[in-house]
Amino acid sequence: FLRSFSHISSQFTRPSFGIAFDIDGVLLRGDAPIGGSPQTLRKLYDDSGVLRIPYIFLTNGGGFRESKRASNLSEVLGVNVSPLQVVQGHSPFKHLVNRYENKLVIAVGKGEPAAVMSEYGFRNVLSIDEYASFFDNIDPLAPYKKWTTTKGANHEKTIADITEKKKICSERVEAAFIVSDSVDWSRDIQVLCDILRTGGLPGREFAHQPNLYFAHDDLEYQAAFPCERFGMGAFRIALESIYNRIHPHALQYTCYGKPNPLVFHNAQAVLKLVSSIHQSKGAANTEAHHFKTLYMIGDNPSVDINGAIQAGSPWFSILTRTGVFKGRENHDKYPADLVVDTVEEAVDYIFKKEG
Ligand code: G3P
Ligand code: MG
User: Fold this and answer.
1) Cβ 22 under 6 angstroms from ligand 1
2) In this predicted structure, what is the pLDDT of residue 15?
3) Burial of 192 (0-12, 13-18, 19+ CB in 10 A)
4) Which of 3, 72, 93, 240 is deepest in the core (most CB within 10 A)?
């Protein structure tokens, strides 16, 4: 990713502030830019497309590798985004690689969850689509689903296929990672319960629960539809409710993502890196850089604003009205430092304040 900064000007002087942009409900709704986001982001670059202001995308969303997400954001928003600038809900999963080494882990969610985990260094990872396809009749509703994957249980033709199926079905799953929103809740809840209550061997007797990780716990988020849509937190509630009815011990799990203040501390470190790479034209400069203010621009009071409040100084929170929050005044429980209509208004305010 360092090469992505080779266009950075040597004239770049480090500003004493940086910006973290939420994506859904601030910059995009579905795939469409909102709130003047393309022209707003262009203001962070000079006339020749060189970055002037250190900024990152700090989203709970995901499902694609940071490099792929960066290209997609570059295309949709019309600016040159580096993978380093993309921090997704699942990005911290990379720190768990050593715990699992060659052990089998399952990746759940829309997009390319297994490719995400492989890029982080997991060596033995299967998407839940592929994993489920190795078990005959694990999902009794599969015949009614047009999108069921073709590899696996009912499609083995060669000795190698049969051997692979036997191997996968008898290999213990050590952990399940919810990388992005589940596409097929009924199948995923069924198969996850099978994995979790049997110690990672679906169809076998009850055993100790394997580890379960969620990239975030957003109950709802703002997509293209006018009202909010159910997020990973809603899926977590559904899975947990069912698991706790069928199992004597409550489901154990870990959630990453905003509003955890650790996400904001990590964002600060990434912003420092972005800033230092700019200054030294492509090579990371480890010299400490002090930000007086870091701006979090978000649309969800209980996630973006709550997280910035918990993280404390130097975070300054700005709440837009383009997403989950639709009120006129500030939010009661998680009041932002500033409430504006759009991301463009937020950045204009920052420029005015920072001179
Ligand atoms: O699934 C994505 C959603 O929960 C939140 O995305 O960009 O608003 O943090 P974002
Ligand atoms: Mg959002």
Assistant:
1) yes
2) 83
3) buried
4) 93
